[in-house]
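Recall that a protein's primary structure is simply its ordered list of amino acids. Everything else, from secondary elements to tertiary packing, is in principle encoded there. The following example makes that idea concrete.
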Amino acid sequence: MREPQFDLVIVGAGPAGLTAYLYARRALLKTLLIEKGPVGGQVLYTDLIENYPGFPEGISGYELIDLMKRQVEKLGLNLMQAEAIRIEDQGPIKTVTLSTGESIITKAIILALGAKPRKLGVPGEKELTGKGVSYCAICDGPFFKGEEIAVVGGGDTALQEALYLTKFAKKIYLIHRRETFRASPILQERVKSHPQIELKLNRVVKAIYGQDKVEKVSLENLHTGKEEELTLSGIFVFIGFEPETSWLKGLIELDALGFIITDREMRTSVPGIFACGDCISKKFRQIVNACGEGAVAALSAHEYIREL
């Protein structure tokens, strides 16, 4: 059996993964951080974060991640840009196989995989993605200057991004399937009082139409059953996230939606494998609690490794 190359491998470099790395290095663990995309994950595409402690004026997602990255770089950032595709559990050692075919041997693993935007799953969505259908306001908002667009969703992200998009679009229809929003009251107040935003409550998107770009959407009123059409040039979807955990089925316990089940110490069903951030089964998904979970995961991993 090969000797472990690392004490700890962290898969995912969003806020949870970066915090876990920070705590792991402070514990002097030989640690490798693996990330298949840009460091920071979904947070990079958030225009303004107002609820992260320590920034009274708010901070952009890019700036926050830059600060986190600079902090771990001071401790020596050992980052590998690659995709993990398989994990093998062999008791005191684990093997992480990458899409390149390379295998990494480690004593413990922290999964900080994040989650990807959930799709509507309606006709026209897939065909028109990138042609008016978007899941990132900061990426695509500037393309809709002076246009009429829609935002779908009722949580903090949807309302925050709708407000951000008022910088560009002349009118925004905010579509939500319920009568009330789940977002924080302060965001609800801002949205309801904004002259460029029109609420479309108790409605769901049935289809998105267009040839080479979005031209209109059809909505169904869930109370009356009536359908209506809105002429638009873009639709932004913020209805939550789904975890990228299908490759872990059969290894660790997942909930019905595919999120990783952990205990309070971020331990999964497999000893030596921990998880944190948006990929775990929980009620609230905020940057601040993802960071807290990353810290707990690293401390738990350190304890586990010390007891081996």
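The radius of gyration is 21 Å. The chain has two domains: 6-117+241-307, 125-237.
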